Amino acid sequence: MASELRETIPTFNQVESESEGEVSLTNWSALTNQGFARTWGEAGLIVLVAVIFVAAVELAIRVFNIQSYILPPPSAIVTTLVTRFPDLFWPHMQITLIELLSGFAIGASIGLVLAAVITQIPLVEKIITPYILLLVTTPMIALVPLLILVLGFTLTPRIIAVALASGPMVMINAATGFRRTDLAKIALARSYGASTFQIFTKIRFPLALPMIIVGLMVGAIFGMLTAVGAEMVGGKNGLGNQLMFWSSMVKMTNFYAIILLLALMGVSIYVIFYWIGKKWAGWQA
Amino acid sequence: MVEIQSQVTTANGAVAGTADTRPIAMSVRHVTKYYQTGTGSVHALEDLSLEIPKGEFICILGPSGCGKSTLLWGMSGLHDLSSGEVILNGTPVSAPRPEIGMIFQDANLLPWRNLWQNIQFPFEIKKLDPKPYEARIRGLLAEVGLAGFEKKMPRELSGGMQQRASIVRCLSYDPEVILMDEPFGALDAFTRDEMNLLIQKIWMETGKTIIFVTHNVSEAIFLADRVVVLTPRPGRLARVFPIDLPRPRTIEMTFSPDFIKLILEIKGTIERGVHGNPAAVAQVLDLG
Fold it and tell me: What is the DSSP letter of B220?
């Protein structure tokens, strides 16, 4: 009851933020406040609507005789995904995952460290931020042909593209977090004789953590989009490459199965970071 | 307790510690403070001197912006002074000192830690093993009525409970001197009364030196052995009022004629920088 009340009462940001008009692409509370089903009844209703929706699509395809090269029936897509997953899709999904995980790990680490460092030096931050914004707003897929030209059809150009797509996204959100300097809490730590490093690890970092997690989530999703896009540009493997392949073969059931697989991967990223956020940044939700 | 009582009696009537035989815990010597803002320099404190004997409860009172918080932050070592010095146990305070505990305007609990972890925070920073202090902390939690709330997050606690937790956090590592910066300003009147009684109780039991900044005249009189009134900016010592009321003080006492007389006298000093208005005192007492 109390927690429900809290959600309806607008909470004002009590953190003294030094900078007005922060660049933040998304807001943690917006992601967490939707929440999952509260009761079994609610969960049942959500599932029921999904079932009705899928059944309606299935029925419409048969009634209006929609050709399977436009939209195969959902049942066929799911069957293909499940039965052909080990031989047809999993090898390519592994490639995409490798690109995503290594690119994201590189990009996110650099982004995090950069954010932590530049927010300590306002002048450096002012100088660097425009370039980061440029990196955030430019689609990194555009660089892939150039990277392939230089590095060949290997995983390296894709990993670089993923890092370039996710890193700045992580950085800009993490920087917003690190800029939230709560002077009272820093004074509290200092009154116990805290060092600059202790203030960072015990105050600034936990204070920034909700925004960091948001940045990681958005960065991971951007990284996945970029990985798939980069695979579409060239090469012989990866889920993006397979999308191009199966559509050129007009094997739309396989094509849609990959789309469904990508959607599931995207949702998994969201769910993983949702739970991380709930566990480590739940105090702010 | 009896011992503290007698100590208080000796403090009563002693202005600026002159007739006091207790050792000096802290002295403020010719402190002046300017600070820079976007629009220029602000003169916050001017040549302020004060001696605080060990075990005294002293309230620093003044209008908003008179520099009373500046004074307290200067005494804590968190802010530098422009000139003058603060001496604690014989050595000048130039940085936060382990003998000092500070209680802030709002409870200032870390929202990502539960109550118990918040109380552990000073130990983590000081790299102090909290084990030997654990019984003490449990006792303090019980005393302020927070036993059983250890696992609660700050947002699950009321404002009064949060401030009580911050008092426990401050007392946990047993500092000699406690600096309190308008700690109950954000609480409602009833909770504030409750907190004042609690602080008086803790002070009488522990005999700590407490320096308490407030803009609430009645709170200052209720708590203090001496009320130090500062002038508007730049803050100078306007007057020191020894408070002779017996301890333990009760909320009922705040409605007594003596208490109201003191309020009016101190209010008068704040408003006009001179002695209280006798006519106003008489008027209120007639109505009562």
Answer: H
Copy the structure tokens of residue B143.
Answer: 């005393």
Interface of A with B in 166-185 (CB under 8 A): 184-185
Give the nearest chain A residue to B117 (CA atoms): A202
Q: Does A211 touch chain B (CB under 8 A)?
A: no
**Does residue A4 or residue B19 have the better pLDDT?**
B19
Here the CATH number for the domain that contains residue A119 is 1.10.3720.10
Measure in Å the smallest separation between the Cα of A174 and chain B Cα atoms.
Answer: 17
Q: Which residue of A has its CA nearest to B101?
A: A191
Distance CA B164, CA B140 (A): 10
Cβ–Cβ < 8 Å for B191, B160: yes
Q: If 0-12 CB within 10 Å is exposed, 13-18 middle and 19+ buried, where does residue B203 land?
A: buried
Backbone angles phi, psi at A67, to 5 degrees: -65, 145
| A31 pLDDT more than 60 | no
Pair A142, A52 in one domain: no
Position A57 pLDDT exceeds 60: yes
- Select from A127, A139, A212, A224 the least CA-distant residue to A172: A212
**Token representation of residue A10:** 């607008």
Q: Which domain holds residue A50?
A: 34-66
Quickly state the pLDDT bin for A281 (edges 50, 70, 90): confident
Q: Which of these three, A66, A86, A108, is where a domain ends?
A: A66
What confidence category does residue B273 fall into, taking pLDDT thresholds of 50, 70 and 90?
A: low
Under DSSP, the state recorded for B197 is H
Do the chains contact at B126 and A206, CB–CB below 8 Å?
no
Contact B91, A263 (CB under 8 A): no
A99 and A192 belong to one structural domain = yes
pLDDT over 90 at A128, yes or no: no
- What is the second-level CATH architecture of the domain B1-78+178-186+208-288? 3-Layer(aba) Sandwich (3.40)
| Minimum Cα–Cα distance from A2: chain B residue | B156
The yes-or-no verdict on residue B283 having pLDDT over 90 is: no
Query: Any chain B CB within 8 A of the CB of A202?
Result: yes
Q: Is position A45 within any domain? A: yes
- Work out the number of other CB atoms within 10 angstroms of the CB of residue B43: 14
Cβ within 8 Å, pair B96-A283: no
